[in-house]
């Protein structure tokens, strides 16, 4: 059994690290819009989790139904959070699978 070329493994690891950092930066810079109530409540969230905008359709602002509005806002936050997680999985998933390609051992590094 031949020894793995450590220089090639290190170069591949550095390339994957750069791709990982680029994907993380792309996720943080991205924005998603979570919605509830068929778009009556919208929450815009960055990939970092920072909320940058909330839109409320005037139809949902009913002083007699504050609980309903709160539920819609929570639903929009939940939807935005789910979308950020899906974005992270989409961007990071292929990179995390690539770590197994670095070698033959269980660590993926040929040890």
From TrEMBL:
Molecular function in Gene Ontology: DNA binding
Source organism superkingdom: Bacteria
Pfam families found in the cross-reference section: YbaB_DNA_bd
Entry GO terms, CC: bacterial nucleoid; cytosol
Chief place of localization: cytoplasm
Coiled coil recorded as keyword: yes
Localization annotation: Cytoplasm, Nucleoid
Keywords from the UniProt entry: Coiled coil, Cytoplasm, DNA-binding
Keyword Nucleotide-binding found: no
Coiled-coil ranges per UniProt: 6-33
InterPro entries: YbaB-like_sf, YbaB/EbfC
Purpose of the protein: Binds to DNA and alters its conformation. May be involved in regulation of gene expression, nucleoid organization and DNA protection.
Family: Belongs to the YbaB/EbfC family.
Subunit (UniProt): Homodimer.
Stated name of the protein: Nucleoid-associated protein HF852_05010
Organism, scientific name: Corynebacterium xerosis
């Amino acid at each position: 059994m031949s020894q793995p070329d450590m220089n090639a493994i290190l170069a591949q690891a550095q390339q994957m690290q750069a791709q990982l950092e680029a994907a993380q930066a792309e996720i943080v810079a991205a924005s998603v819009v979570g919605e509830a109530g068929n778009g009556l409540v919208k929450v815009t969230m960055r990939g970092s989790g920072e909320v940058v905008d909330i839109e409320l359709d005037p139809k949902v602002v009913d002083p007699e139904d504050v609980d309903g509005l709160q539920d819609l806002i929570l639903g929009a936050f939940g939807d935005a959070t789910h979308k950020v997680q899906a974005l992270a999985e989409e961007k990071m998933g292929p990179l995390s699978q690539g770590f197994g390609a670095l070698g033959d051992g269980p660590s993926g590094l040929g040890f």
